[in-house]
Write a structure and sequence with these properties.
Layout: H1 2-12, H2 16-33, E1 37-38, E2 41-43, E3 50-52, E4 58-59, H3 69-80, H4 82-100, H5 103-114, H6 122-137, H7 143-156, H8 161-177, H9 183-193, H10 201-228, H11 236-248, H12 257-279, H13 284-301, H14 306-339, H15 343-354, H16 359-376, H17 380-398, H18 402-415, H19 424-433, H20 437-465
Antiparallel strand pairs: 1-4, 2-3
Helix pairs in contact: 2-14, 3-14, 4-13, 4-14, 5-12, 6-8, 6-10, 7-8, 7-19, 8-10, 8-18, 8-19, 9-17, 9-18, 10-20, 12-13, 14-19, 15-16, 15-17, 16-17, 16-18, 16-20, 17-18, 18-20
Organism: [Clostridium] hylemonae DSM 15053
Subcellular location: Cell membrane
Membrane topology: Multi-pass membrane protein
């Protein structure tokens, strides 16, 4: 009886579309209540990025947004998030074409057999790979590439969709939060504050080890519980449905020469992708192009008919359309707050509040400010361009050096991506994995407490050491 009541309550929880639209409504109401204001912006040397001018804040006349703007914000949000949204659609479409050849199923079966009895080894290995890439280039959006690849494997090994999503999201976002050479956060912060590029890397490398270990242990704890009792899974029904869908797509289970050739081609294309991202600065456009190439190569080798290729692309895109729309809706919240001119007002008020704290508490206050601000501006580069020119001189006044200030901002920007529904990449991953947002919160809230405590302790240590480049 209790299980039935619990099931009814969960079914009544709003769909993520409804949650995000409600947040857009709240954002619109906030623009009517909070005063409007703005900082002046100056163009950086790259000619495109705009940075806030310190001490230039001023209140402006209130221009009330009408309710119809709420509907316009949906379109503007989708437009603003178009690169990520279209990446989701392209990867979904191309992955389905590759999957239709049977090569993926064969590869998964082969790996599952080899890992029999040693399934837990996959967590530290794969999570290290995801963390390493995020530590070097940031690139949290690459989770949209990782998740479709690991999901069928993890289900085949007897884990659930929460485990697969957790190992990808936790490792990537944790490493992103203390990234060693992320050009979109650390690089911008160093440029604004005048520090040597990527200076202070030694301390961030230590933190990488700490948060990598914390993430692996957290996901392993949950995965062991699910392996022991599958019904203890937070997403038992959703995982069963996903596993059934993948089983229906399995096709041949014995490896053929064509399957092996497709697998080799995918490995080569993946290697090119990693090289391009690290050495050539490739981003979503190039990644999408490589996925299209991968789909074409797989289709040719697998002798798929043109009609089958097109049908599978449509089916693949259908499967991830919700994830693409989620990106637009989450971006729409920021569109409304920006149009109402209240984002600068909020950061101005928060910065004034932290200025009265002693250094040891002020550095934690900045960490928390950036956490809260990430709900409004869910973009690492965007957030740093707004907050760093304001917080850096403020930090100097209260005795916090620029290196520690960048670290506090970096962690504040990164960790809340694990929780906030305004994180388009997170919500896209949840939509792909068919994980309801409230169940994700149940899974991740304890880890959020852990990283918040670890982050605060790290910042206090950095402040005590007068953390610098060397």
């Amino acid at each position: 009886m209790k299980e039935k009541v619990k099931s009814i309550k969960e079914r009544k929880f709003p769909h993520i579309f409804a949650i995000l639209f409600l947040m857009m409504v709240i954002a619109l109401i906030a623009t009517w209540i909070v005063p409007s204001g703005t900082y002046e912006r100056a163009v950086l040397e790259d000619g495109t990025s705009q940075v806030v001018v310190t001490d230039s804040f001023q209140y402006t006349d209130k221009d009330y947004l009408n309710p119809f703007f709420l509907l316009k914000a949906v379109t503007q949000g989708l437009t603003g998030a178009s690169l990520v949204a279209f990446t989701i659609l392209i990867i979904g479409a191309c992955w389905q074409v590759i999957n239709a050849t049977g090569a993926i199923a064969v590869g998964i079966n082969s790996i599952a057999k080899k890992l029999k009895g040693k399934e837990m080894l996959i967590f530290p290995i794969l999570m290290f790979v995801f963390a390493l890439i995020a530590a070097i280039i940031g690139g949290a959006e690459l989770m949209l590439v990782y998740l479709p690849a690991v999901m069928p494997l993890m289900l085949a090994l007897g884990f659930d969709s929460m485990t697969a999503t957790g190992m990808v999201v936790v490792s990537a976002f944790s490493a992103f939060s203390v990234s060693v050479t992320n050009p979109f956060t650390v690089g911008i912060g160093d440029e604004i504050t005048g520090l040597p590029l990527y200076s202070g890397a030694w301390f961030r490398i230590i933190l990488q080890v700490v948060f990598y270990a914390a993430g692996v242990l957290y996901v392993l704890h949950y995965s062991r519980k699910v392996r022991k009792d599958p019904k203890s899974s937070l997403v038992y029904e959703e995982s069963a449905a996903l596993a059934k869908r993948y089983e229906n797509q399995t096709g041949e289970t014995e490896a053929t020469g064509r399957h092996k050739l497709i697998g080799l081609a995918l490995v080569i294309i993946l290697a090119v992708m990693v090289y391009g991202i690290i050495s050539r600065g490739w981003y979503m456009e190039e990644i999408n192009g490589l996925f299209i190439i991968a789909a074409i190569v797989a289709a040719v080798i697998g002798r798929l008919k043109v009609e089958d290729v097109c049908t599978n692309m449509i089916d693949g895109a259908k499967g991830v359309i919700a994830a693409a729309i989620v990106c637009g809706l989450s971006r729409g919240i920021m569109v409304i707050l920006d149009a109402g001119s209240i984002i600068d007002v909020i950061i101005h008020a928060l910065s004034q509040a932290v200025g009265i704290l002693p250094p040891s508490l002020a550095v934690i206050g900045i960490f928390i400010i950036q956490m809260l601000f990430n709900f409004l501006v869910n973009s690492g580069s965007g957030q740093f361009l707004i907050t760093m020119p304001i917080l850096a001189p403020l930090g100097a006044l209260v005795g916090i050096n620029s290196q520690t200030m960048i670290l506090a901002s970096q962690m504040g920007d990164g960790f809340t991506n694990l929780l906030f529904p305004t994180s388009g990449v997170l919500m896209a991953c949840l939509a792909f994995a068919k994980i309801p947002y409230q169940k994700w919160v149940k899974f991740i809230w304890k880890y959020m407490l852990i990283v918040t405590v670890l982050g605060s302790v790290s910042l206090v240590i950095a402040q005590m050491l007068d953390y610098g480049p060397f």
